[in-house]
Amino acid sequence: MNEPSETRPNPSEDQTLDTPESLEQLRDAVQSSPRVLAVGQRTKPPLSETDATLVCTRRLSGITEYEPSEFTFTALAGTPLTEITDTLAQRGQYLPFDPVLAGAGSTLGGAVGAGLSGSGRFRYGGIRDFLLGAKFISGEGEWIEAGGKVVKNAAGFDIPKLLVGSLGRYGVMAELTFKVFPQPVAQLSLGIKCSTHELARQRMARVAKSRWELFAIDYQPDPGIVHLRLGGPPQANDQIAEEIQTEWSGEVTNIPLSESIWAKTSELNFGPHDTVLKVPTTGPKMQQLCETLESAEGVTLHASLAGQLVWIAVSGNTRLRSIDTLLQSLGLSGLMVRGNGTCWLGSENGAGMAIGSQMQRAIKQAMDPTAKFPELPFPELIASQ
User: Which of 14, 40, 297, 299 is the most buried (most CB within 10 A)?
Assistant: First the structure.
């Protein structure tokens, strides 16, 4: 699949881009360079900013094994997510965590390295919960196969999970195995109008704790609507929708063409902004962010996971600096997924983050003792996933 050229930014002049066409060439490229970072289609440029040699996996593409009856597939790391989702859809299956930036050209390896999941993570978990196995090249140039190709696999340490959110700093992924789920028979989306951000937080908390078991709970601060996604037999969806409409009579509406809402979120398409940040939050801090930034020009917010995550889209470096200051004041950290500049904003303090940083240093030393791969650009990446 040929992707638009804008999804593959040119590397800076001090970088070399190596594009191997086989797994052996991939290994040779890793072994022949003193410092290496693997990239895919580079749909998330801030996460691959480095002075190391870039080894691109986009020619290492394709599904190598697919067992619909076992609900698993194995694919090369450079395989576009759209190729995978299209193949799964033909057999009535899908990746429930809503892969991020699939339409922009993101690859399977890039999705694992970035550790990003969409709105569907609320019900079924994120990308790390679906990764079963991985074949990758260590910093010493050795092939490592970890995990397995079946769902029920309890042998050894779950090393593949360490690759999720590692930004390629622990190894160069070559092949990945995932479990998949059957697609729901039908889906239905509702919108609950909320007059204040506090009311939205309260209602999301109520829905999240209910027996309705919704697929996704998001909040769009402007115009103040909580989005709910239901999945299952049409009759069950209609019954749950009726209960929700009774709970907040007169404030709940069915959303036509609902898939466009969720696709807009998974593609991080929040408007004409050049920068998008991922900010893990709590409900109260989500409310604080919304209240503080509701009148700010050049800023669009979208809350996901019932308020446990906020995407912040920003235009302009001046506004970005004020966002950085705000995040620090709230004790929050932001990962820059799209844009230019440092990929880490906000707070770097706290005992939990310090523990996460220590753990990552220990993992990095164990998996890459020769420092073949660049250091993580910020210490709390895995802890924030």
Answer: 40
What's phi and psi for 210, nearest 5 deg?
-80, 175
Verify that 119 and 36 share a domain, yes or no. yes
Instruction: Report the b/e string of 177-192 with b at 16+ CB within 10 A.
Output: bbbbeeebeebbbbbb
Domain region containing 340: 268-346
What pLDDT, on a 0 to 100 scale, did the predictor assign at position 364? 86
pLDDT at position 349 is 47
Is 121 found in the same domain as 1? Answer: yes
Q: What is the pTM of this model?
A: 0.89
- Residue 227 near residue 306 (C-beta atoms within 8 A): no
State both tokens at 156: 């050894």
DSSP H helical ranges for the chain: 23-32, 81-90, 108-114, 121-124, 160-163, 197-208, 234-247, 258-266, 283-293, 317-330, 351-367
d(CA 82, CA 79): 8
pLDDT at 356: 55
54: exposed, middle or buried (Cβ count in 10 Å: 0-12, 13-18, 19+) = buried
Are both 148 and 43 inside the same structural domain?
Answer: yes
The answer on 135 and 158 residing in a single domain is: yes
**Domain CATH number, residue 217:** 3.30.70.920
Q: Are residues 12 and 125 in the same domain?
A: yes
Alpha-carbon distance of 160 to 306, in angstroms, equals 27
Write out the two tokens for 256. 């036509």
Ordered mean pLDDT values, 10 residues apiece, the chain (385 residues): 38 62 95 94 92 94 96 98 98 97 97 96 96 94 88 70 93 97 96 98 97 97 96 96 96 84 92 91 97 94 97 88 92 92 72 58 86 73 38
Residue identified by tokens 């990239």 is 39
For residue 383, what pLDDT is reported? 36
CATH code at 313? 3.30.70
Burial pattern 141-169, b for ≥16 Cβ within 10 A else e, equals eeeeebbbbeeeeeeeeebbbbbbbbbbb
CATH number for position 20: 3.30.465.10
